[in-house]
Amino acid sequence: MTEPLLRIDQLRVRFDTPEGVVHAVNDVSFQVGAGETLAIVGESGCGKSVTALSILRLLPSPPARLAGGSIRFQGQELTSLGETALRQLRGDRIGMVFQEPMTSLNPVLTIGRRLTEGLRRHHGLSRRAARERVLALLERVQIPDPSRRLDQYPHELSGGMRQRVMIAIAVACAPSLLIADEPTTALDVTIQAQVLDLIGELCEAMGTAVILVTHDLGVVGDVADRVVVMYAGRVVEDAAVDDLFSRPLHPYTQGLFAARPNLTPTVAGQRARLTEIPGMVPSLRAGVTGCAFAPRCRAATAQCRAQTPLLRPFDSSGHAVACHHAGGDA
Amino acid sequence: MLGYVLRRLVATIPVVIVVAVVVFLLARLAGDPASVIAGENATAEQIAQIRNRLGLDQPLLVQFARWSWSIAHGDLGVSIFTNTPVAQLIVQRIGPTFSLAVVTIVLAILLGIPSGVLAAVFVRRVPDRVIMMLAVAGFSIPIFVLAYLLILGFAISWPILPVQGYTPLARGVLPWLGNLILPGLALALVYAALIARTTRAALLDVLAEDYIRTARAKGLLPREVVWLHALKAASVPIATVIGIGIALLVGGAVVIETVFAIPGLGRLTVDAIARRDFPVIQGVILLFSGIYVLINLLIDLSYTWLDPRVRFT
Ligand SMILES: Nc1ncnc2c1ncn2[C@@H]1O[C@H](COP(=O)(O)OP(=O)(O)OP(=O)(O)O)[C@@H](O)[C@H]1O
Ligand SMILES: [Mg+2]
C-alpha cells in the first residue's frame, strides 16, 4: 500500500499545568489519504482541537508538550522537524481555518495585507503579482467586490465574509491538506452550509485533503469520506462515513447518534426527543484506567473498568473500534 | 474627522480658562514681587510705589481681567525684571527645551519598545527578568542622581561627552547631539522604563490572541509575527504611554536643564519663580498647558491611524 498523505501514530499530547498534567491526547492514530475528507467528531473537550493544532505544532508550548507518537506528512516526519522546515509547510502545503472568524483575523491589518503575505513568503511573488492572485482568490471564495475588500479591515466584514477570507488565506497556496477546526460553529445556520460547500468545492478542485473538526454529525454525513470519533483524548471509532452511519459500533458513537436532535418531523408532526448521553466527560487530569467511557456506558463490565480497550480493526473494510464488547462479543 | 478636531479644540476652551485661573493664582502665591524688586532696604513707600506701577494694588479680579484681556490679544506681558516681552523670552528659550524633549523621546522609544518586545517574547525567562529589573531601577532612581552618575561616567571618568551646556543645532548636528545625549538619557530612562513595561503588557495580551496563531499558521517568521502583526495590534496603549511621557517631560526638564546648564524654558521658569516674575511664570505655564492639550489631541488622533476600528465622527 502506498503511504497516505498524513499518518498520525500513537500521538500523545500533555499540558503541564500548575494543577497537574492534562492528558489531552492519548495514543491517537488515524490517516488521511490524498484528496480525502476526514471528519473528527466528539464532545467538547475531547481533544479535537489539540490534535488538529499539534500537526503544525501551533499549540502554546509550554504548557503543551508532545509526549510521544509520530506525525508523517508526505513521507516526512513532522514531530522532529525543525522550526524553519515546519514554517515552510505552514500555510503552503498545509493550510488552517480556525473556529472564530471574529478573533482569528488581526483587527489592525487589511484583508489584502494578510492574504498577500503568505503568497509572498512562500512563492516569492511581487506585491503586484500577489495582489492579482489574491483578487482571483477572493472571487473564488465568492466575496463580492473583491478589490474594495482588499483595503478593508476585518471589522468591516460580516462573520461569514470573514470566514471566507480565512478560507482564502488557508488555500492561497493551494495546500495538499486543509485543517478546518469547527469552521462554521460561530456562524449563522444559513451561512454554515454555504461555507462548508465552499470548502468542499475548493478542495475538490485543488485535490486538497481536508481534516474537518466538527460537532455536527449532519455535516459529517454530507461532506466526509471517513470519520474519526474521539472521546476523552482517544480515538474510539474510525470508519468510512457510510459504515459509521449504517453501523455505529462504539456505545459512545451510538449515543452520539441518539443524542442528535432529529429534525425530520414524525408522522404526528412532532419532533423526536433528544436523548442525552447520561453522565459527564471525565477529567483528563488523571490518566484513566480502563475505558474512559465506562462510567457512562450501559453495557460496561468489570473488564471495561480494569483494562483500556485498544483501537482494533473490526472488519476488512477498515472499520476500527476501541471497545471490548463491540459487535456483541468480547 | 475635521469636525471632530474642531469640536475637540472648542472643548479645550473651558480647560484653558481653568488653567489660566489656576496659573494666575499660583503666580500670586509665589509672593510679592514688589519687595523683591525693591530690595532689602526699601521703605514701605517704595514698595507701594512699585506695587502701584505693576498694578498689584488693584483687586485680584481686576488684575485677572486685565491679564486675560491681553492674553486674548496674544500679549503675554512683559517681564517685570528685564522688561523683555515674555513672548520674546519664550522664543529665545524654546529651542534648547524642544531639542531636549525630542532627543529624550527618541531615546525613550528606542530603548523602551525593543526592551518591551524582548521581555514579552522571552516572558518569565532571563531577558524578561533582567529588563523588568532595569525598568524598576529606571523608575526608582531620581533623575538628578542618574544625571550626576552619567556625568561622572561619560564626561569625567571617561570624558567622551561634554559635562554641561548647549550648542544650537545651527552649529552642527554632532555638537548639538553631543550636548543633549547625557541630559536626554538621564531624562529618557524613566520613560523608557514606562514604555517597556507597557509594551510588554500590551504585547503579551496580543500574543495570546487567536490571530497570532493564524499568522503563525500561515508560515510567517516569528519576527514578522511579533514586529508586524503583534506590535501594530498593541500600538494603542504604547502610543498612549508615549504621549503621557511627553506631557510629563516638563517637570523633569526643569531639573535636567538646571543640572546640565541648558538655557531652556525650565531654567527660565525656575529663575522666574525665584524672582517672583509672575508675567513670565504665567506665560510659560500657559504655554506648557497649551502644549499638553495639543499633545493629548494628537494622541487621540493617532488612534485612528493605529487602530482602524477607532473612528471619530
Ligand atoms: N492551554 C491549555 N492548557 C491546559 N489544558 C488545555 C489547554 N488547551 C486545551 N487543554 C485541554 O485539552 C483538552 C482538549 O481540548 P480541545 O480544545 O482539543 O477540545 P475540543 O475537542 O477541541 O473541544 P471543543 O469542541 O470545545 O473545541 C481539554 O480538556 C482542555 O482542558
Ligand atoms: Mg476545539
UniProtKB/TrEMBL annotation, chain A:
Name the UniProt key words of this record, in alphabetical order: ATP-binding, Cell membrane, Membrane, Nucleotide-binding, Transport
Pfam families in UniProt? ABC_tran, oligo_HPY
Entry's CDD domains?
ABC_NikE_OppD_transporters
Q: Where in the cell is it found?
A: Cell inner membrane
- Major location (coarse): membrane
Superkingdom, according to UniProt? Bacteria
Span of domain ABC transporter? 6-257
Single GO MF annotation = ATP binding
Enumerate the Gene Ontology biological process terms: peptide transport; transmembrane transport
Q: How does the record say this protein sits in the membrane?
A: Peripheral membrane protein
- Among the entry's GO cellular component annotations, what is one? plasma membrane
The family note in this entry says: Belongs to the ABC transporter superfamily.
Q: What is this protein called?
A: ABC transporter ATP-binding protein
TrEMBL record, chain B:
Which Gene Ontology MF annotations are present? Answer: dipeptide transmembrane transporter activity
Q: CDD domains in the record, alphabetically?
A: TM_PBP2
The residue stretches assigned to a coiled coil in this entry are none
Lipid bilayer topology: Multi-pass membrane protein
The record's InterPro entries line, in alphabetical order, gives: BPD_transp_1_N, MetI-like, MetI-like_sf
A GO CC annotation recorded here is: plasma membrane
Q: Name its cellular compartments.
A: Cell membrane
Q: Which UniProt keywords apply?
A: Cell membrane, Membrane, Transmembrane, Transmembrane helix, Transport
Q: What is its main location?
A: membrane
- Record-annotated membrane-spanning stretches: 9-30, 98-123, 130-156, 176-196, 238-260, 280-299
Q: Which residues form the ABC transmembrane type-1 domain?
A: 94-303
- Family in the record: Belongs to the binding-protein-dependent transport system permease family.
Protein name stated in the entry: ABC transporter permease
- Species name for this entry? Vineibacter terrae
